[in-house]
Design a protein that fits this description.
It is built from 8 helices and 9 strands. It has about 240 residues and is an alpha+beta fold.
Length: about 240
């Protein structure tokens, strides 16, 4: 490992960028950015197990612990229905305050996403990022076996809340960090899908914020039934998903 490390540093150090001067003479300089990129890519590629063990796993543990403590605190001290109502009001205010004809997206940072796709479009001034802080379980109705959750609740958090009660979802994707909103707007599938279908097929109701700030509830048999059917696979292009049952 030491030999490889030194070899990479040497290879990077001798690489130069040729830049033409005003008098047509050429100069050479070290390209520091290229050196750093090469070094970082080398470490992440050739020694990824070390990176995961030393950095990723401890950070993931701390993040999950913080989320659990937060969820427990919210459960003990807050009225989740009232909290959700205030959060929805804040989202509606942001939608109403955006410039006319400005495209809308969530302000969720790329590091919180499972997808590796680029999020650079969110930095474009023409876009209006909306802060969608919806990450709590609103209610669990054991009698009707229905759970009402905000869109950013993760499968891991939902499973941990249901298992002590003797329940689980019919479809439980293997990755704990997948969110309910992502599984509905995208595609949620698991081995039990051969019996219960995709994740959105176990959902009975969506609470949505439309592009004009109108909040509607879509079910399979109300006036917004077409919207209920269109939300899956829409990837958030039709409305902001606020909660689901």
């Amino acid at each position: 490992m030491v030999v490889e490390f030194v070899s990479v540093l040497f290879a990077v150090a001798v690489s130069v960028a040729v830049v033409k001067g005003d008098n047509e003479r050429t100069k050479s300089r070290f390209d520091i950015n290229a050196m750093m990129r090469t070094f970082v890519l080398y470490v992440l590629t050739e020694h990824r197990s070390l990176v995961v063990t030393v950095f990723a796993l401890p950070m993931s543990f701390c993040w999950d612990t913080a989320r659990c403590i937060r969820a427990y605190y919210i459960k003990l001290t807050k009225d989740t229905n009232e909290l959700h109502h205030h959060r929805v009001e804040r989202i509606v205010e942001q939608v109403h305050s955006r410039p006319p004809n400005s495209p809308m997206c969530t302000a969720r940072p790329g590091w919180m996403s499972i997808s590796l796709s680029s999020r650079n479009y969110k930095k474009d001034p023409k876009w209006k990022p909306i802060e969608v802080n919806l990450s709590d379980i609103i209610s669990i109705d054991l009698k009707n076996q229905v759970v009402h959750v905000e869109s950013s609740v993760s499968i891991g958090e939902l499973t941990k809340a249901l298992l002590p009660l003797g329940y689980t979802l019919p479809i439980v994707p293997e990755m704990d960090d997948l969110t309910v909103g992502g599984l509905i707007n995208g595609t949620g599938v698991e081995s039990s899908s051969h019996r219960y279908g995709l994740f959105h097929e176990i959902c009975a109701e969506y609470e949505l914020c439309l592009g004009d700030g109108t909040v509607v509830t879509a079910t399979p048999d109300n006036e917004y039934s077409d919207l209920f059917s269109a939300i899956p696979y829409s990837y958030g292009t039709l409305a902001l998903l606020l909660s689901a049952k």
